[in-house]
Amino acid sequence: MGKKITIYDIAKKLDITAATVSRALNNNTKISEATRELVIRTAKEMNYEQNKLAQALKSGKSYNVGVIVPRIDSNFFASIIRGIEEELYPKGYHVIICQTHDQEYLEIGNINSLLNAQVDGILMSISNANLENNESFKNLLKKNVPLIFFDRKKDIKGVSSVTIDDFKGAYDATQHLINQGCKRIAHLSNDRKLLIFKNRYLGYKQAIIDNGLEFDESLVIETQSKVLEGRKTTKILLDMENRPDAIFSSSDFTALGAIEEIKAHGLRIPEDICVAGFANEPFTKFMELSITSVDQSPIEMGRLTAQVFLEEVNNSKKIKSEKQVVLTPELMIRKSSQKLKID
Amino acid sequence: MGKKITIYDIAKKLDITAATVSRALNNNTKISEATRELVIRTAKEMNYEQNKLAQALKSGKSYNVGVIVPRIDSNFFASIIRGIEEELYPKGYHVIICQTHDQEYLEIGNINSLLNAQVDGILMSISNANLENNESFKNLLKKNVPLIFFDRKKDIKGVSSVTIDDFKGAYDATQHLINQGCKRIAHLSNDRKLLIFKNRYLGYKQAIIDNGLEFDESLVIETQSKVLEGRKTTKILLDMENRPDAIFSSSDFTALGAIEEIKAHGLRIPEDICVAGFANEPFTKFMELSITSVDQSPIEMGRLTAQVFLEEVNNSKKIKSEKQVVLTPELMIRKSSQKLKID
Predict the structure, then answer these.
(1) Does any CB of chain A come closer than 8 Å to the CB of residue B282?
(2) Which of B:35-54 have CB within 8 Å of A?
(3) What is the ipTM of this complex?
(4) For residue B214, what is the domain's CATH number?
(5) A229: domain range?
(6) Does residue B309 share a domain with residue B278?
């Protein structure tokens, strides 16, 4: 059991003063980064428990960081969160997570809950395209709580973001489908008030135009990132008189639904219809008919988001800088779209 | 930006004392209803924000509930969380989630973070078998914060839990393998200081004994619930002189690793070796070689956990009751173990 470890025990072990230990644990800027990290590591090794609540009331810091995602049960968001954790835990922060299920009222509720929980920052992938008109959200912007968007963002003055180049990801996937000989490429889109879906749509459209193919707006349908929605939307496309010969989906989940529906119609993939998704969820690789998709480096995205947060939280007194980090996507070509044998 | 409005600003505007403002905002009965309403209206007009933390400290309710899981990127835990949310959101609660990655220091850190965030209860699936010896955890038990275990539990006096009958799930899976003609069934176990893994081991063992087969302890290996660990452990089994003809894994992830390793050894599934996992993760169904597994009704488990929490939080003044809810598992038979064709 042993008695409770105090800052005096840590000071004794490291042969420094208790005041230095206290300052280091409280991120006082007078302490060198090296000392701070040594103190935090030693405190952890000795199982020192700070009275975080007392600390929070005093310093205004809780060392909790809130992360808001549309859903946790996608490898993409889970991997981003892992990246965030990997970057923040060694700095003494804890990560608490909320999911919105793409519901506006939950998104706002989550923001309020995290603010009530006194988080030091909010890292979020937005669900609600009209977020900036909400009072709670305006309120958040007025506070000095760092807010960073990742993946699903809105361009809001003063808010940093980490995203991938969705336009390029979509362009590359569409170009690949064209290279396979596809001429009528449909696009399963999503709420284009969200930038990621708008940019995927624009990348898809540009690839079609650049290749001299006819752009047919009737082949673009907005749907939700769910398997069942993918099936329903694909049914509409397959029932067309002049049905598409390829589907580029802005989501792996709708791509999976598309594949199920195409099979149910007795059509062959990729011979009759090629399919490509977006996000490189692990199931796209493990499927019997593996699915072409666009990788978004989610762990890297999480790490970078956390780094931007750390910069902001450590510079809160200075002029607020806004940072836009953009990662490059990578196309993963698999069976669902590989009509032509390469090699 | 503007500076933060305080009770002194409100007092000045209304020409009353700050103490009166404070009493009015905190529903002190000494204040007249007219004054109370005036103060609240003025506070709203001035965009005054009460310190919710201070408020939470006083009223003892934040309407935030903390959920701690080993990992969010498994369908099993994500589904439990969905069940919890479905039950709690309509009651006005918000759910905030932490993951431990099976690390003891993160588990303790998460408990502290959630307590600092003033949650009204903690629902958790434990990672650390020695949890009850930890000071922070003892501290939690002493507080009046409802704590409920789900799935991974320890028997701790006064702590309710919702689990499935792991013994029966493992017994049924093992019996199925025996029915397929398997005689040397290995078991990929996990930390048996955790009850779920102990009970799966006991169910497996009992089925072997009940069928008059020889129980060989050398065929039981403890490993971690990860694909790569499953591969490593299976390699040990396949290199045995008298290798097993079936593997029952306490995790779908290690079962997947086992399948990869068996294939890498040029052996056939199920002809040479049958494989069964546990948890019914979606990939077990979608795999080219679908994997036999045990379903644990995770959404139901989450809903029941939330219900137990609601009972406790609404009865906190009464004598503390302890509830143990046990669900019945269901065996899902798939290709990885189906040697004999059933019609």
Answers:
(1) yes
(2) 49, 52-53
(3) 0.75
(4) 3.40.50.2300
(5) 166-296
(6) no
